[in-house]
Amino acid sequence: MLEIDRLAAQAGDFRLGEVSLTAGAGECHAVLGPSGSGKSTLLAAVLGTLPVASGRVRLAGEDITRLPMEQRHLGYLPQHLGLFPHLSVLDNLRYSARARHLPEREYRPLLDRLVEITGIGTLLQRRIANLSGGERQRVALVRALAANPRLVLLDEPFTALNESLRRELWWLMKDLQRERGLTVLLVTHDLSEAYFLADHITVLIDGRQEQSGDKSTVYRRPASEPVARFLGLKNLYPAHRVGAGIVDCPALGGRLVVTGADVSGDETLLAIRAEHVALRQADDPPRDGETRLTGRFEAVLDLGEAALLHFRADSGALLEIRCGSRVLRKYDLQAGKPGTVGLPASDLFAIRRRGASELSWPPTAQAGALTL
Ligand SMILES: Nc1ncnc2c1ncn2[C@@H]1O[C@H](COP(=O)(O)OP(=O)(O)OP(=O)(O)O)[C@@H](O)[C@H]1O
């Protein structure tokens, strides 16, 4: 089990901290955040290549905060791969196990399996310089995993790979986590990768831990505007507190009640995920607690499995809607057509606005249309 407790570190002028997170044996914790937010810096501090200014890192109960890097026995796939160019692929793969003086019979079965699954068996005698980008990435992944580490740190491990290989490796990671109790600290920009692999998610913004929790909570209830925007939530509308648990949100049709968490300041944002905006027919009977908006579809984009729509409400608000592409055909949705959408009360939630007074938290807000 990995426990990071109020970890702070300094890289040049950049300060990271304080970060606290955990990952149990066999779990994956994904670290997300915009470029330059400190994700690789966090990995460097856990790995031991960057000194820790304060805080603790524990692995299986052992405090490794000040342990020399080579005694931590961690698997590491750096963003720039860090393969040894003068060694063959096979010698790169054996490097960690040999450095730890593991006998070949101990590490070879896992290594052979990883080689087979990643399809690099024909590359073993090649030099790193002669490999393609995707081949190097697979070699670096196998190298990070081959010595059967307790914890593996993966910095953007699957970026140069095609979709089908990436998915295959995602499943491989799941297998290794389950079979060997492999614990993973993963840095990624890819939200679907984080949702697939991770049990928990931490979002870093400007070196600060903005939110951390189980992945569905972070997904369903981003705690602040920067997290929401980073996670791709577009439907955010300014709202004002007008009474206990009541907000006025002109863009979403007026007054709404916030039942889960009261708004303690004046300024907040009401939010709804694109996939929670419901498509309705103009003559659909009203539903309890659902806010209806009429307007016009401005754009309709068929992405294959799913579709993205832009809907301009009569109030002027723009809503992004995500639905299955079959729905497009069912309702014959096209840009320029008028339409009606529903905002289910349980899917509307309040978000803390940076720079403004804060909401009371945890974020269990549920908003519903208020009949006044
Ligand atoms: N050794 C260093 N000296 C000075 N500045 C550094 C050093 N290492 C990192 N930084 C700075 O710290 C900030 C965070 O860098 P870091 O690599 O951790 O970000 P990141 O979130 O991993 O970004 P990306 O997604 O682009 O890889 C950046 O502004 C970077 O330039």
TrEMBL record:
Pfam families: ABC_tran, TOBE_2. Keywords: ATP-binding, Cell membrane, Membrane, Nucleotide-binding, Transport. SMART domains: AAA. GO terms for molecular function: ATP binding; ATP hydrolysis activity; transmembrane transporter activity. Residues 1-231 form the ABC transporter domain. One of its GO terms (cellular component) is ATP-binding cassette (ABC) transporter complex. This is Tungstate/molybdate transport system ATP-binding protein. It comes from Sulfuritortus calidifontis.
